[in-house]
Amino acid sequence: MRLKSDDVLPPGFRLHWYQVQSLLGDGGFGITYLARDTNLNQLVAIKEYFPKSVVSRGEGHEVVPGDASDEEFFRWGLKRFLDEARLLARFRHPNIVRVLSVFECLGTAFMVMELARGKSLSDAIRSHSIVTDDQVLDVCIPLLDGLAMVHEAGFIHRDIKPNNILLRPGLGPVLIDFGSARRPRPGMSSELTAIVSRGYAPFEQYDAGNEQRQGPWSDIYGLAATLYHAITGGAPVDAMTRGMCHLNGDPDPFVPATRCAPGRFSSTLLGAVDRGLVFRAGDRPRSVGEWREMFPAHSAVRPPHVDVSTEALDRAAETNVDAVPRAAPMADGGAAATAPPIDEPGDESTVRNPVVADTDHLRRRILVVDDERAARTLTTRILTNLGATHVDTAGSAEEALARLDDARAVPELMVCDLEMPGMDGIQFLRHLAERSVHAPLILVADGDERLLGAARHLASVHGLAILGCMRKPVTPDRMVTLLSRLDVTPAGGREDDRSPAHLGDATLRDGIAGGELDLVYLPTVSVKDRELLGAEALMRWRGARGEGLDVAAVVKRVEAMGLADAFTEQVLRKALAQAGEWRAAGLPCSVSVNMFAASLRRLDLPEHLVAVAEEEGVTPRDVILEVDEVDFLAQRDVPLEILARLRLRGVGLAVDDFGTGSSTLDRLRHIPFTEIKVDRSFVAAACEERTARVILESSVALARRLGLRAVAEGVADERTWDLVSRLGFDAAQGFHVSAPLPGDRLAEWSRDWSMGRVAPGEGAMRASA
């Protein structure tokens, strides 16, 4: 049964202190919304109990059941929804989605959950990202840890599948959508399709009238089926089909993982997956602990286990009263911090009543490195007051490096002073790079901001993940701002980096000939009215076996092999074909394609591009070619003739990564560019560094004087958006708008964006819908 538009609460609707932003998703028994907690000024996910087959939305948005039978079922499900939400609210585990509150309103109930951000396991499977034992275990082992806690509380998930597992960079997987009130009353076989996920649900879950047969072993089947999908590329045969074969005396059609993927994964791992998929519930492992013993050893360092219940919840459990407080949750979720004791009084004014941080970020193991005890104390107190659960300190860079040698204490976030005796912070950065440390860094110093800027740039050159810098003393507001960037700052500070892999020349040549190249598209929007202007094509190289590759890492080899033209031909044809599909779907927007200097030697490029555009149903004015400034330096013989002739035909020309080359003004003088794309390194730093901000101001002023469009690259948060807006940028792209999207999703994203269904800053997330 499809959800009707009138069933969905409209954007701006208030539920107590929560304001609905947009629809995130719906199922047979609920509707999930993106909402803003106006008390804590943070985004949350809210699930409404709404069994759409038996209720409708009445006057004042009240939920109204149908006949008396519907009323009975609705009340039965409502009680389960409330009971399960209150139980879930007691869990504090880094790999289980958190329930923050539950309340009754509009004749039904609403569950407030943390907003889980990341990509689904389904996405990872489709991109062929799970190819080793460790990658499977990185998903499996943390979830087993979380499920063990859930099962000990007498609760099971019942809907484990790839879409309900989100992968968060640096934080591990999180299990979402616990399917509250998803068990039907006996006799409601017509509802089974809304309750059972085919291929992932065990046979006992199809028996609506016998819930006693379900238990931890049912979740084991669901997780085993999920791992089977990740390993083999497809879900196992549906349990109902297997059951019919058993009843008829036919062979089980299930093909074990040990037969599907021998040699690609260890026999131990494949055997453990097959044990979890045994058809008879009684023959499966009876507990997560029993099943976990069957898996191979896992060496990855995982986030610390945090299992804390609030006092209010514990008291409620003892007295069997409402277990979820009606007020908004505390900033720290009631969790007790395990930070070192405060060894010296600090400035209380700097740590009292801090702005609220996203507590999900603060479950990480944090290391504060500073030679001054008072500074360590102040930073530690700020972090714990914001809700940090584990803060360690080191009084020197040498001590911090020693901590890195202890696998049990490897930090997941570091706050580091630059000015330390002995090994200073600059040297420390080099040692972190040599050890391939991936923990995000916050740099602090007493010195001027230019020193911080230099350190930040050096860290980026080293490939370290930098959240930002701050001058001492550390403040809660500034700390919250930097912590908010944990979602959008991968190692190296670039949004579209991919880990390079080694491919031979023959593989590259065959891959180009075979079309082993994917494109995704990063939307560019108007800063003034947020209208979609176009999308930049970003290359993703799959290689011969489906590996993800950073194309920039192989471009030089492609050029050296004389394959630049063939490489560029693929990109142009795929990008222009996609632009043609957008135009046919009623989405007229430009497509931007990065050009390499070697391809600009092709004398017939203008005529060829126009011909391809016409074939795909677009005009040359729909195309923007982006040329990297650095490419100009490497290719001083770039034919200005070709660029000028492209411009004569209406093709837009953008100078990409503006500000990173040494010949900027000379190129602007001679080449007929139509826009300047200011490099993300300046944009990301401008809110903190005066020098970067001045460069942005000068870039915008220069663009205006020359009649060019000024585009800000890498706008990652609302603060940066506000800055580029104040400075007068014409357009922006970055994770504040959206992550790169497959081409066939841009039209849907554009509709949601224009109607306010995609909240600014949330385009790069997968929410717990």
Task: Describe what this molecule looks like in 3D.
The protein has 769 residues and is an alpha/beta fold. Helix content is 36%, strand content 17%. It is built from 26 helices and 25 strands. The strands form five sheets. It has an eight-stranded mixed beta barrel, surrounded by four helices. It has a six-stranded antiparallel sheet with strand order 1-2-3-4-8-7, with helices on one face. The protein has a five-stranded parallel sheet with strand order 13-12-14-15-16, with helices on both faces. Helix 3 (133-152) runs antiparallel to helix 5, helix 5 crosses helix 8 (267-276) and helix 18 (564-584) packs parallel to helix 19 (605-615). The protein is globular, with a radius of gyration of 28 Å. The protein starts with 13 loop residues before the first strand and ends in a 15-residue tail after the last helix. Residues 180-194, 299-359, 488-502, 543-548, 630-638 and 763-769 have low confidence and may be disordered.
Structural features:
769 residues; 36% helix; single chain; globular; 26 helices
**What general outline do the C-alpha atoms trace?**
globular
Characterize the largest beta sheet: strand count, sense, and whether it forms a barrel: 8 strands, mixed, barrel
Structural Rg = 28 Å
- Overall helicity: 25-40%
| Unreliable segments of 5+ consecutive residues | 180-194, 299-359, 488-502, 543-548, 630-638, 763-769
